[in-house]
Amino acid sequence: MASYYVLQKKQQELLASLKLGTTEPCANVEVGSISTFASGSNNQKVASEITELVHKELGIDKKRFYVVLTDLQANRVSWGGNLFG
């Protein structure tokens, strides 16, 4: 089975939910995948790798962003007009 990932990056001067009181860069990273995150067995590894990538490539402090891993249902995800499940 092929793996498909959806990565959406949102960066703002102020992210109200962080409430850290500075204007340093911050972000919310959401990663959705079909059947990848449900078991939780690789979630820590994936979260750590995404954290390192965002920190290295965007220069955002690791404590200034959230990483959210979402397990998507195949019958609710479409690509090219066709559902995956």
UniProtKB/TrEMBL annotation:
Q: Which GO terms describe its molecular function?
A: cytokine activity; dopachrome isomerase activity; phenylpyruvate tautomerase activity
UniProt record similarity statement: Belongs to the MIF family.
- Give its E.C. classification number: 5.3.2.1, 5.3.3.12
Q: Name one GO cellular component term.
A: extracellular space
> Which Pfam families has this protein been placed in?
MIF (PF01187)
Q: Which UniProt keywords apply?
A: Cytokine, Isomerase, Secreted
Catalyses: L-dopachrome = 5,6-dihydroxyindole-2-carboxylate; 3-phenylpyruvate = enol-phenylpyruvate
| Protein's organism | Acrobeloides nanus
Q: Recite the lineage of the species.
A: Eukaryota, Metazoa, Ecdysozoa, Nematoda, Chromadorea
- Where does this one sit in the cell? Secreted
Q: What is this protein called?
A: L-dopachrome isomerase
* Chain segments annotated as coiled-coil in the UniProt record: none
